[in-house]
Amino acid sequence: MAALEVLAVALMLAVVCPPGCSSLHIGQLQVPGPIRNGSVKDVVLDCDYEATKADVGIVIKWFLNQLADPKADPKGEPTLVYQWIPGRIPQALGPLKGRVNLGYRATDEPSTRHRALNIVNPTIELSGEYRCQVSSLDGEDSRAKKMIIYVPEDNLELTQSKASEEGQIRLSCEADGVFPRPTLTFIQKPVDSLNATVMEGAEVRVTDRLDGLFDIEADMVVDAAALDDGPEMVFGCDLEIPDADIRLVKWERYESISGAAGLALASKRLSLLLPASLASSLSVWAWSSRPRL
């Protein structure tokens, strides 16, 4: 009988409200910005939608395309992780099963009460693109945003050594235990300048660890003669976590291999080499949100 009643209402609405007249609309999708792994107890992803009495048979679904899932196809279908039909108990599915507070209420309104995800103890495997889809018998709307749980590096090391080729030096940089997948770039600049340039030709290797984190290392060979003829230079190892919008640069000074002391392994802090007027404006170690080179 209940099914017949729903069908009757749907047929009435088809006459009163033809296809396309639904006001179902997601006004705002709220997803937190980058979160350091283990730093919060829970997060809320809210799908704020508007509906009217004309919208019958509303269903709210959340989908996830995981960053940490090596089997995930970036162009494929995401996984259904949450579903709620007003008047029924919400369900957490797949990667979110057992990870969602199903009693959380976004509002006190029966039609929007359980629209949000309250994820408990979010960790890196729950990073990815979340899509909220709200549908009724006569309309549908969806929106998507990424949520990133990141892990900064355990260490970032930059060294320089004499290369096997005459008149050249080798730069080596490595970082361990990073998530999401990072990038490494060598940069250089005159010691008294704030403008750095990217050094081309580096060989970069990334290792996927069993714990889901990444190790990364890079090497390149530089012509020492060209450096000796120019201004005093510093090298930078530029580590970026693009999805988290995080950047860390380690700087070391170049010392000529033709000098009396030979090549000094980089160990001095750049702030000690800069004039006082510049030292305060440039950090050797600094997390930032993509500063310009």
Automatic annotation (TrEMBL):
Keyword Signal: yes
Lineage: Eukaryota, Metazoa, Ecdysozoa, Arthropoda, Hexapoda
PROSITE patterns: IG_LIKE (PS50835)
Name of the featured protein: Uncharacterized protein LOC117651642 isoform X2
The species this protein was found in: Thrips palmi
InterPro entries to which the protein is assigned, alphabetical: Ig-like_dom, Ig-like_dom_sf, Ig-like_fold
Alphabetized UniProt keyword annotations: Signal
Signal peptide residue numbers: 1-23
Ig-like domain sequence ranges: 19-149
Magnesium recorded as keyword: no
